[in-house]
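Exercise 7b. Backbone tokens:
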């Protein structure tokens, strides 16, 4: 009998697993851009610990192993900034990313009063763009990451989450 993947709020004890998973998962993004200095690959363990303590962070677990994570925080304009969504490469394509995103959206809207959801992804990240569009995000602009990668900015109104929850 196989184990099922569960989604839960991250704890301080998850920070190191999130850190390692993030490093593994974002290698393919780095390769896509020929840039191994992208933000998720240069983030420190201490910074991840800080985010777990302060932000809305969810993990996907397979038994005791963290196999996915996502982070979000509500910004001054009432938008929930969602980022660093990642799922272990061996488990991608099974809906875990969408489940993590939904959990973060629910908490950010219901517990933190988000008015809309906003995320960024690299302009060449077709798999990410497909997922985000499938769950209701629409392109609203472009930006450039601190690491120089051209980004697509996507948003979804909270009402869209409520309608699909």
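Sequence design result:
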């Amino acid at each position: 009998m196989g184990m099922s993947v569960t989604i839960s709020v991250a704890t301080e004890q998850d920070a190191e697993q999130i850190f390692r998973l993030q490093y593994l998962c974002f290698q393919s993004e780095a390769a896509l851009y020929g840039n191994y200095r992208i933000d998720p690959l240069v983030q420190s363990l201490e910074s991840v610990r800080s985010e777990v303590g302060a932000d809305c962070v969810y993990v996907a677990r397979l038994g005791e192993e963290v196999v996915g994570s996502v982070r979000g925080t509500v910004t001054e304009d009432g938008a929930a900034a969602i980022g660093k969504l990642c799922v272990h490469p061996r488990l991608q394509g099974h809906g875990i990313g969408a489940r993590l995103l939904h959990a973060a959206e629910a908490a950010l809207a219901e517990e933190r009063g988000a008015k809309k959801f906003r995320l960024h992804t690299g302009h060449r990240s077709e798999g990410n763009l497909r997922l985000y569009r499938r769950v209701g995000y629409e392109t609203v602009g472009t930006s450039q990451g601190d690491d120089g990668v051209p980004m697509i900015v996507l948003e979804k109104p909270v009402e869209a989450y409520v309608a699909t929850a």
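Instructor comment: The chain has a mean pLDDT of 93. Helices lie at 15-25, 27-33, 39-42, 45-54, 96-110, 126-134, 158-164.
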